[in-house]
Amino acid sequence: MRGSWRTAIAALLLALVASPAYAQGVARSLSQLRVLVEGGSRITVIDGSGGEWSGRLGELTSSELLLQLDGRAQRFHERDIARIRQRRSDSLANGALWGLGVGVGFTAMVMAGVAHDYDVNLGSALLATGVYGGLGAGIGVGVDALIRTSTTIYESSASQPDAAARTLSRERRRIAIRLVTIRF
User: Fold this and answer.
1) How far apart are CA 43 and CA 86, in angstroms?
2) Which of 83, 91, 178, 92 is nearest to 141 (CA)?
3) How far apart are CA 95 and CA 118, in angstroms?
4) Residue 27 has what DSSP assignment?
5) Spatial contact of 100 and 136, defined as CB atoms under 8 Å apart
6) C-alpha pair distances (Å), 125 with each of 10, 57, 102, 120, 131
7) Which end of the chain is more exposed for a tag (fewer CB within 10 A), N or C?
8) What distance in Å separates the CA atoms of residue 92 and residue 102, rounded to the nearest whole number?
9) Reduced to 3 states, what is the DSSP secondary structure of residue 23?
10) Are 83 and 154 in contact (CB under 8 A)?
11) DSSP string of 97-130?
12) DSSP label at 116?
């Protein structure tokens, strides 16, 4: 009987090791941006020279963006925008998964530690794992609800270096690391 509940807990822990991957929504055109942001939302527009303007999104067309800045409007053409950022809440799902994993993992370790000294059956071990996993998930959601980050929601395709430039940059780093390694 003891071997079966240990196997169940080990299988549960292995299932929690894999973490889900979430696609990050970054628009490459103002037309795509309409799906990610609503009119009146607070955003920060960064132009090609690095200047930043924060305000509320006014009008948004496929080629222009109107930003409301403290009573005045600033119009940006798509070719002049390098990046747009918006403060967003962190996903609650990853906090729930991390909390669940910590709660289940902690409970499984405690159950494995006391199982030899006490008569712990599979039902009570699974119940305790579920309860503390749920508590961990709730705490994880609470922590994530407090986190707000500035997220890039638009990035001009012109501001992205092409593949050859990225490859050259990586090769330069490798050469620099090799030179440093040789000197020491």
Assistant:
1) 5
2) 92
3) 33
4) B
5) yes
6) 12, 53, 16, 7, 10
7) C
8) 15
9) coil
10) yes
11) HHHHHHHHHHHHHHHHHHTTTS---HHHHHHHHH
12) T
Give the Cα-Cα-Cα angle 97, 99, 104 (nearest 5 degrees): 95
For residue 155, is pLDDT > 60?
Answer: yes
Amino acid at 51: G
Task: In whole angstroms, give the CA distance from residue 45 to residue 52.
Answer: 6
3-state class of 8 per DSSP? helix
Average pLDDT of the chain is 78
Instruction: Read off the pTM.
Output: 0.51
Residue 28: strand, helix, or coil: coil
Residue type at position 36: L
End-to-end CA distance of the chain: 58
Q: What pLDDT was estimated at residue 175?
A: 59
Neighbouring-strand partners of residue 87: 150
The helix/strand/coil state of 5 is: helix
